[in-house]
Specification:
CATH class: Alpha Beta
Distance between the termini: 36 Å
Order of helices and strands: EHEHHHHEHEHEEHEHEHHH
Strand content: 5-15%
CATH architecture: 3-Layer(aba) Sandwich
Low-confidence stretches: none
Bound molecules: zinc ion
Mean pLDDT: 97
Structural class: alpha/beta
CATH superfamily: Histone deacetylase domain
Shape: globular
Length: about 375
């Protein structure tokens, strides 16, 4: 199956400002690790285009797109930019090249959608900005590239698109976009009680949305259980022609902004199952605030999509990249030794707790 990775030079710049959780190595690191392992060459690497104004306004309001460009160019946000658009806040700061960076995330996802139309899988690790609203920045997201990817598939004539979100946070922006759209089913697994607080198990959006809020400590066995008994049946029943999946690395053990405890192996298994459902798969990044767990997870994910097993031991060039990382939110004593020497985490199996098992009936029942 054809596979593409949508990257970009802009992801080698640190954005967001120094005290922001996203001011760490992320998509650029994934690209570097994949190259260090020999998993990326000109046949599969795509330089993400910058989404045009017309492409962004397919979903976002023109006045908002213009505001993002203006604050990015000037470096200044007015009181109105903060209150009306959520721009220039601690959550959604203004930083140099904000606009091209946010528009590149969208361009990569739109390009991913175009690439897979005739079959294949495309991975945009810089994408997954699932909180973006039509006219407001929200939850570190300025635009909503998952929505634009799904719209690209629908505009090309597909009738049924499945969106699955495995990030630790509820995909409120994507669910809102498709609340009245019977051609799109959204399924989200996220940590209960976490920001933004939406996505209760009873919440079905406009009808097709399904939400599985899971407790802290969520383990591999629990994800396997929910995939087998809830997500895959709901996915199959919907008969999708394409799948878009956001694989937030913040659901992994060791992430400073979530309490979930998955290994990367469980996320790879989940994505493989979804990939095998249809001829067309788009994989997006999403959250993830620990550069070691994020880099290893998304690099191994690309390896899985390309049919490469994680090399043991990890070659020196890849180890050097991991050794060169830093992150203010992850204390030295919390850094696991294997983060520097392996791609695959040890399995994080455990009991399937009753509150997790109960979600199956809640989301699959009438
Ligand atoms: Zn998240």
């Amino acid at each position: 199956m054809a596979a593409w990775l949508c990257g970009g030079a802009i992801y080698h710049e640190t954005g967001y400002g120094s005290d922001h959780p996203l001011a760490i190595a992320r998509a650029g690191l994934v690209e570097d690790l994949c190259r260090a392992l020999g998993w990326l060459d000109e046949t599969c690497f795509v330089e993400s285009p910058v989404a045009s104004h017309a492409e962004l306004t397919r979903y976002h309001e023109p006045v908002y797109v213009e505001a993002v460009r203006r604050v990015s160019d000037s470096g200044l946000a007015s009181a109105e930019d903060r209150t009306r658009f959520g721009l220039g806040t601690r959550e959604n700061p203004i930083f140099p090249r904000l606009y091209p960076r946010a528009a590149t995330a969208c361009g990569g996802s739109i390009e991913a959608a175009r690439r897979v139309l005739d079959g294949g899988v495309a991975f945009n690790p810089g994408g997954g900005t699932h909180h973006g609203m039509p006219a407001r920045a929200h939850g570190f997201c300025y635009f909503n590239d998952p929505v634009l990817a799904v719209l690209t598939l629908l505009d090309a004539g597909l009738d049924r698109v499945l969106y699955v979100d495995l990030d630790a946070h509820h995909c409120d922006g994507v669910q809102l976009a498709f609340r009245a759209e019977p051609r799109v089913r959204t399924i989200s697994i996220h940590e209960a009680g976490r920001w933004p607080g939406t996505g209760a198990a009873s919440d079905r959006g406009g009808g097709e949305a399904r939400n599985l809020p899971v407790p802290a400590g969520f383990n591999d066995s629990e994800l396997d259980h929910l995939m087998a008994h809830a997500v895959m049946p709901l996915a199959t029943e919907f008969e999708p022609e394409a799948v878009v999946v956001t694989v937030g690395a913040d659901a992994l053990a060791g992430d400073p902004l979530s309490g979930l405890a998955l290994s990367n192996r469980a996320l790879w298994r989940a994505v493989r199952g979804l990939r095998d459902l249809t001829p067309r798969t788009i994989v997006l990044g999403g959250g993830g605030y620990n550069p070691w767990t994020l880099g290893r997870c998304w690099t191994g994910l690309w390896g899985m999509l390309r049919g490469h097993a994680p090399p043991v031991p990890l070659p020196p060039a890849a180890r050097a990249l991991l050794a060169g990382l830093d992150c203010e939110l992850v204390d030295d004593e919390d850094r696991a030794p294997e983060w520097l020497s392996t791609l695959a985490d040890p399995p994080a199996d455990g009991p399937v707790r009753a509150e997790v098992a109960a979600l199956v009936e809640m989301v699959t029942g009438g």
